[in-house]
Amino acid sequence: MLGSFSESLRKNEKIQFPVKKCNKSAFVGKLRYWWCWFVAGAMILLIGAPALILLWLINRKTWLYPLASLGAKIWLWACGAKVKVIGLENLDPLKSYIFVSNHRSYLDTAVLFAYTGRKMSILAKKELLKIPIFGQGMSFVNIIAIDRSNPEKALESMQKAKEILEKGYSVGVFAEGTRAMPGELLPFKKGAFHLALQTQTPIVPVAIKNTDWMMGKSAGTAFPGTIEVVFLPPVETKGYITSEISEILQKVRSSIAMELAK
Question: Which residues of the chain register pLDDT less than 50?
């Protein structure tokens, strides 16, 4: 088992961990799932829309950050999620980082955006731009839509991420490129690691636990629980060259995988 685990890490292959089962009613879980999206829609419509209009009129778009962070925390609370943060002491509050995380749930994005203790830019799927009001608000808080199917557009997104890092912001990336199924850790894509090497920015491996059984991919249910977000010691990128990118990727992915296995 250990040999297979190590081999999957070395080859950047999919890893399957044991999946926690929730013993609560699936029917209640479905009701909570739709309640979560009702709350999200109401917050976007009743709070987000007026805030976007006001901040656009007074040309203070970045003032949306504290409201967006608070909104993410309220949404998690409404979904029945408590958040336990571990490892912030590993981070320098004056430094910018690239946070590389696993991704198993819609809950992960809110957690990564709201609980790093700093202004965050998130690399997100371009489909989010289609969400009314939310899509427009993404640019206010430097959430970058990335189109992985279009190499030219993807490069533009990475250039924008560089500019954001230069302004002192941090960047969050779900390196698997999509949500994994419960218990899975998918292969990591290299975009975040190229960005880290080009900007000489340290990478913080992030392990997000329990969101897969709380609100997992394709389940259509949501259950209350405690999300554990673990910020692992940063991986330095200074001194590395592009040909060594696989070494950094393996180091970061191994760190996350070992934490998920606990």
Answer: 1
Domain ranges of the chain: 23-260
Residue range 171-188, pLDDT digits in tens: 999 999 899 999 999 999
Rounded CA-CA distance 164/186 in Å is 27
233 phi-psi bin (left φ>0, alpha ψ -120 to 50, beta other): beta
Structure tokens at 147: 């189109």
Q: Residue 103 and residue 165: Cα distance in Å, rounded?
A: 22
What 3-state DSSP class applies to 121? strand
Say what angle helices 64-78 and 49-57 make with each other, to 10 degrees.
170
Give SS3 for 46: helix
Main-chain phi, psi angles of 170, to 5 degrees = -105, 165
pTM over 0.90: yes
Give the Cβ contact number of residue 244 at 10 Å. 13
> What is the DSSP pairing of strand 203-209 with strand 225-231?
antiparallel
Phi and psi based region of residue 172 (left: phi greater than 0; alpha: psi -120 to 50; beta: remaining): beta
- Which residues are bridge partners to 228 per DSSP? 84, 209
CA angle 77, 83, 86 (to 5 degrees): 165
- Is the domain spanning 23-260 CATH 3.90.870.40? The answer is no
Structure tokens given for 113: 């955006």
CA atoms of 195 and 11, how far apart (whole Å): 21
- The pLDDT tens digits for 65-85 are 999 999 999 999 999 999 999
Cα 223 to chain centroid, rounded: 20
Name which of 104, 246, 82 is nearest 174 in CA terms.
104
Tell me, what amino acid is at 1? M
